[in-house]
Task: structure prediction
Amino acid sequence: MTKDSPEEEGESRAASGGEGGGGGGKGGPVRRNRADDNVTILTSSMDLHRTSRSRASSGTEAAPSVTSSLEMSIQTRIFKIIVIGDSNVGKTCLTFRFTGGSFPDKTEATIGVDFREKAVELEGETIKVQVWDTAGQERFRKSMVEHYYRNVHAVVFVYDVTKMASFRNLQTWIEECNGHRVSASVPRVLVGNKCDLVDQIQVPSNMALKFADSHNMLLFETSAKDPKESQNVDSIFMSLACRLKAQKSLLYRDVEREDGRVRLTQETQTRSNCPC
Ligand SMILES: Nc1nc2c(ncn2[C@@H]2O[C@H](COP(=O)(O)OP(=O)(O)OP(=O)(O)O)[C@@H](O)[C@H]2O)c(=O)[nH]1
Ligand SMILES: [Mg+2]
Result:
């Protein structure tokens, strides 16, 4: 289902793009990273709600309440992560598993985009991971593509391990991503989904790993369906959140009120103490 874009508020608080390189693709065995001990998942939500910042923005009333809302929202950075790939590879199920902790009974082709969000704690900082579950079918995505890539912080490319065509098409998805001026420094990961279908696997791990390495991406082979893989699915998003946190830290130096709206001035600084 297509919903209102949360971009405006995400852009205002999240670190723009990212720096420091993709950082993945170390070679060796397929990464099956487990969530870091320093990571705590606080809450999850299947719908993206308006945040305190945007509510504060609309009012012109008492400054103290605006200030306290801002103080709360300043503490919460948002990382926008988009999930891209062929239709039917399991993008909706993977994002559902991460944000909701379960496998959906039934899914329909995503139209436009579904937003899902989860608050996590990394080294004492609460961060909102905002997942954009995009449509794989061209007819359901063409009017949205610009929005997908705008101010994105990380990209998850998904293929179905039981469908070679979905793996071959990754090149096209990467080209689309590059064509939308997504910086090479924005972290990207590769996910082979549906590993529970062991008898039907068409894409060998070594082939996927080679591809991931050549594009400087980490590879995760997992299953949105298998509950035992739940932590591995979490690791996909948590590893990106860790890297983004390590790359940038936002400082809000100034709060101005302009024409009845609150405007935040932001500054970034590099950090290098990611626990992952
Ligand atoms: N066996 C198995 N089936 C899965 C898995 N993940 C998703 N599926 C199934 O694959 C089908 C497609 O899943 P979706 O998550 O809707 O696929 P999508 O990539 O979001 O598709 P679009 O929205 O059209 O782009 C559904 O029937 C899911 O039940 C998995 O890990 N294992
Ligand atoms: Mg979908």
